[in-house]
Amino acid sequence: MAAVALLAIVSCTAVSCGSGTSKQGQSAPAAHATANSTVLEVDSLLKNAETLVGQPVVVEGVCTHICQHGGGKIFLMGSDDTQTIRIDAGEKVGKFTPETVNSLVRINGTLNEERIDEAFLSQWEEQAKAQAAAQHGTAGSSCESDQKARGETPVNSVEERISNFRKRIAERQAKEGKNYLSFYSVTADSYEIL
């Protein structure tokens, strides 16, 4: 957490010197509040995600990865690599620039929830059976960063991934009485590199 705070201070200092600009070419504000809402760190957003689904959010974190298939998504890390959230480029953003990687990034967007339950897994199994060779981003395959953001352990097949999800759902059912897993992402309306 101290490292993220230090990075934020260094980034804010750089912004005040004029080196940080937003996607729209405006200087990035040094304060942790925007005109409309408070800026959340990734850890705080994930901790409170259940109550923020469908709402506009502003989140900051270090970009650890950009999708190589067109720059349509990035991943922001919080205090450590277990605190990661996927950011999808919204219609207004289009795609993220390569400069976002290893930078402190502020996202304005909407928080989304994807639920994985037995119905989803059964449908996924059927699709996997129908496709002989899964390609990156289809039929259940996803990049390593996406899997890490979901707290998944590395696997060798779609079937193993589905099995692992079923185990995690059973654990959550036993602990919390919820028969699904929730994964959160933000659809970005705008972003700025700080």
From TrEMBL:
Signal peptide start-end: 1-16
Region feature (Disordered): 131-158
Keywords, comma-separated and alphabetical: Signal
Protein's UniProt name: DUF4369 domain-containing protein
Native organism taxonomy: Bacteria, Pseudomonadati, Bacteroidota, Bacteroidia, Bacteroidales
